[in-house]
What we know:
Layout: E1 5-9, E2 30-31, E3 34-35, H1 36-46, E4 51-56, H2 62-65, H3 71-80, H4 83-90, E5 96-101, H5 108-113, E6 123-127, E7 131-134, H6 139-149, E8 155-161, E9 171-175, E10 185-193, E11 204-213, H7 216-219, H8 233-242, E12 247-251, E13 255-258, H9 262-272
Parallel strand pairs: 1-4, 1-6, 4-5, 8-12
Antiparallel strand pairs: 2-3, 6-11, 7-13, 8-11, 9-10, 10-12
Helix pairs in contact: 3-4
Amino acid sequence: xxxxxxxxxxxxxxxxxxxxxxxxxxxxxxxxxxxxxxxxxxxxxxxxxxxxxxxxxxxxxxxxxxxxxxxxxxxxxxxxxxxxxxxxxxxxxxxxxxxxxxxxxxxxxxxxxxxxxxxxxxxxxxxxxxxxxxxxxxxxxxxxxxxxxxxxxxxxxxxxxxxxxxxxxxxxxxxxxxxxxxxxxxxxxxxxxxxxxxxxxxxxxxxxxxxxxxxxxxxxxxxxxxxxxxxxxxxxxxxxxxxxxxxxxxxxxxxxxxxxxxxxxxxxxxxxx
Length: 273
């Protein structure tokens, strides 16, 4: 089953980066010669995805605008003979970008739900903007390969082995002993959101990349928003897991960077410079 669509939830306010994010979305902060969001779109393209939906909030229109064509600018660059810059602008010409709004901050599951009417494929990639993977293969390429190994059955989520004292900051997966035929691919039997270290079923944290079936969009509205009124993706997957849908984890290789904090962004900036 070919993976062709991806949702990028980028509606957050970026409060940790204020006052900068009053005028510039956090996702447009630079990493090397590109903003953070361009690295995530590039990750989608590397995985063969050409249909991308941004979930934004009011005031973050500059995120999709970064990827739009600008015929006047392209004509001027052509006139000046700036062919290398022209090629950089044209790299997204074959990608279909779509934008929807999340008017209220009601959780990651609520953000994804705003794209329900846009979804056409049987499997959809979800990439959260705070996490980037730096290595031989991107996080999404590794997830896609794992998904193909499962023959497109169920969901696949990215996992990272984290220090036990940090489990209360992550969703944590409990893993079966079942042999999946791939060392990186794990069969998940349960998940718990942000457990205390002594209660965590493992140290495999869920980190920012998912491939979910279309059926998850039917489950999300049924999830009880009992977590400060939020609808969470992990709760929908737990519900589907209990009804027999397989959920797998892919323990990704390479270095994961959390750009959601000033400290993490500083590390990422050094790595991509």
